[in-house]
Amino acid sequence: MVKVLIVEDSAMYRQILRDTLHFRFPKIEISEALDGAEVLAKLTASPPDIIFMDLKLPGESGLELTRKIKMQYPSTTIIILTSYDLPEYREAANQYKANHFLAKGSTTRDQILKLTESILSEQNAGGEK
What we know:
This protein is α/β, with parallel strands linked by helices.
């Protein structure tokens, strides 16, 4: 079973993203975290296949978490999903090995679903899941 982790401090946004993903992909396992400590605990217990990562989180930034996660779990796909669509954040996300960068304000639900479907297809084709 494919595991998805939504890392977002906004409960409303987490719920919207969770419902959107679950409706289209009912067989994936979705968990949530709202800060770095919770992310690291969930990674230790059960590493996800896909992480939707906000940049601005309580405590540790999403960029720093991305760097740490990719060092320990390089095959985990990390999608930065943020309201801060700035060139410096895009560059940092790239340097920290995020796989994708999406702006909340301009990315549609359909685009998120298509990207997720593409990632799942790649993983299935690669025999990872």
